[in-house]
Amino acid sequence: MLEKGKIDEILFSEQQISLRVRELAREIERDYEGGSPLLVGILKGAFVFMADLVRALEIEVKVDFLAIASYGMSTKTSGIVRILKDIDTDITGLHVIVVEDIIDTGLTLNYVLANLKARNPASLEVCALLNKREANKIDIPVKYEGFPIPDVFVVGYGLDFAEEFRNLPYIASIQPHR
Ligand code: IMP
Ligand code: MG
Fold this sequence. Notes:
Layout: E1 6-12, H1 14-31, E2 38-43, H2 47-56, E3 62-68, E4 83-85, E5 95-103, H3 107-117, E6 123-131, E7 144-148, E8 154-155, E9 171-175
Parallel strand pairs: 2-3, 2-5, 5-6, 6-7
Antiparallel strand pairs: 1-9, 3-4, 8-9
Helix pairs in contact: 1-2
Bound molecules: inosinic acid (IMP) and magnesium ion.
Magnesium ion binds near residues 42, 45 and 101.
């Protein structure tokens, strides 16, 4: 088992995140005027982002959640994704926006998108707060992106390291390996 990590550097403050979340909300409002999209948050990581995003949105939205297996105690994705809790909504014909905390390799979202697409939504887009673009192994079309970040491990604002640090109001890098 890895040792507990140490907070390294704050990458995005509470204020920076809040400003960016409101900008993303304006983009979504513009694109879904009168469209009432269903926002599907990927648990657990996206719960904080999702909560702030929906409250910033001044259009009608519905929410649902999908829980999938994460890294566990490691910091690298296995590529094998397991659905722990499915959404409750029948998304046939609905406008769906998948809300994710972070894209690393892209393997998780690739699986989630393929799975949701098979259920025939009217449209399917991605809103990701963070994207480690240089670590992407699969090209994921991200319509709404909060911040591109370098390939460092980050925690806070819903993101964890071994289930810790999700409650930090900011996003910080961490040194998990020493
Ligand atoms: P991917 O499948 O490699 O794109 O990994 C995506 C998932 O791994 C995210 O939903 C996160 O739960 C987790 N993850 C990836 N990078 C980080 C990170 O830097 N901190 C915390 N979780 C991460
Ligand atoms: Mg996640």
